[in-house]
Amino acid sequence: MQQGGPSSPSCPSNSDCFPLSRLNTAKCGSETSAEQEKHEPTDLSRMRSIMIFYMCYLLCLGLGLACVVCVCVWNSQWRGGFAWDSKARQFNWHPVLMVTGLVVVYGIGAVLYRIPLTWGQNKLPWKLLHAALMLIALVLSIVGLCAVFDFHNANNIPNLYSLHSWIGIAATALFAIQWVVGVAGFLLPCSPISLRKLLKPVHVWMGGSILWLSIAACISGINEKLFFVLKGTANGTQPYSKLPPEALLGNSLGVLIVAFGLVVLKILSNHNWQRPDSRPEDLAYTPLLQEENE
Predict the structure, then answer these.
(1) With contact defined as beta carbons under 8 Å apart, do 214 and 103 qualify?
(2) Could you tell me which of 217, 215, 129, 134 has the C-alpha nearest to residue 176?
(3) Is 238 in contact with 232 (CB distance < 8 Å)?
(4) Is 216 helix (H, G, I), strand (E, B) or coil?
(5) Beta bridge mates, 231
(6) What pLDDT sits at residue 67?
(7) 271 pLDDT exceeds 70?
(8) At what angle do helices 32-73 and 245-269 cross, to 10 degrees?
(9) Comparing C-alpha atoms, which of 136, 121, 127, 114 is closest to residue 60?
(10) pLDDT score for 293
(11) Is 121 left (phi over 0), alpha (psi -120 to 50) or beta?
């Protein structure tokens, strides 16, 4: 027991020694340095996590751009370019629009909420941007389907006979349903909070599932197209088994698409990169017209 003499400053209770902000640590006297030591590793870890996120995000953007460039070069240089004339050049719009819309734009829109610069800001503009990017992706994929169906019908080619076509139709149909339900559930003022809490995990799971279906549809379609056009005919075309330059480019496009999808799913699966007010413990959604400035 201490008797007499000035006592060192201390906190009246244990709860006072856990400051709400760094400015309050001075009240704890000698424990200030201990609290700072606790904060510094946390801050370093957080900064490291943010840096890794931006590295992954830049990689995602780079791979997405590479996918778009690669599919455009393939169909312009080896497949004869683009037109809307119910001939082969119209078909070339199909792979370009499906890869661009159903994979690249979709994936970039999916990770939009993970960008740390958007945290702590009004969520409404980012909700609208997310919905707009997804709508652009949906429109591009629908136009891509119209291009191939019109080409098939004009040339008496059967529709929906391959596994590639089944997966592609399923991905686009689920995407359309996902977008409509998402707008109705998360943007309309009349949607109740209980419905949004119920829809949130389903919306996230469906988003990742649609991306995987889109990737499967694209890489199976690339392989199917290469088998059709690289048969080693008398016009000098080398067979696919010889891996000519067109086959090498097509295979590289498939690898880029898979790599893009893996990076997107890595970003979506990391709990530390979720927007703080979107984590399960902070589910407090507000619909459109009720969004508050944060």
Answers:
(1) yes
(2) 134
(3) yes
(4) helix
(5) 239
(6) 98
(7) yes
(8) 150
(9) 114
(10) 36
(11) beta
Specify whether the CB–CB gap between 96 and 144 falls below 8 A.
yes
Chain centroid to CA 248: how far? 27
Residue 95 to residues 70, 100, 139, 264, 269, Cα–Cα distance (Å): 11, 8, 14, 20, 28
Q: Which residue carries 């902070």 as its tokens?
A: 282
Residue 266 is encoded by which pair of tokens? Answer: 């890595």
Q: Report the C-alpha gap between 56 and 36 in whole angstroms.
A: 30
Contact partners, residue 248, CB within 8 Å, separation at least 6: none
Contacts of 74 by beta carbon, 8 Å cutoff, 6+ apart? 95, 246, 249, 250, 253
Show Cβ contacts of residue 197 under 8 Å, excluding neighbours closer than 6 positions.
283, 285
> In angstroms, what CA-CA distances link 56 with 51, 260, 264?
9, 10, 8
Reported pTM: 0.80
Q: Does residue 240 register a pLDDT over 80?
A: yes
Residues 94, 82 contacting (CB under 8 angstroms): no
Q: Sign of dihedral through CA atoms 32, 37, 42, 45?
A: positive
Dist CA 173 CA 161 (whole Å): 17
What residue segments make up the domains of the chain, in order of their start? 62-274
Give the pLDDT confidence of 12-33 residue by residue, as tens digits.
444 444 333 444 444 444 445 5
Quick: pLDDT tens for 144-171: 999 999 999 999 999 999 999 999 999 9
pLDDT of residue 294: 34
Query: Rounded distance, CA 121 to CA 168, Å?
Result: 36
CATH 1.10.3860.10 for the 62-274 domain, yes or no: no
Report the C-alpha gap between 168 and 241 in whole angstroms: 26
Write the CB contacts of 117 (distance below 8 Å, at least 6 apart in sequence).
none
pLDDT tens profile 185-206? 998 888 888 888 899 999 999 9
Is pLDDT above 50 for 5?
no
> Per the structure block, which two tokens stand in for 131?
């919905």
8 A C-beta contact, residue 267 and residue 108? no
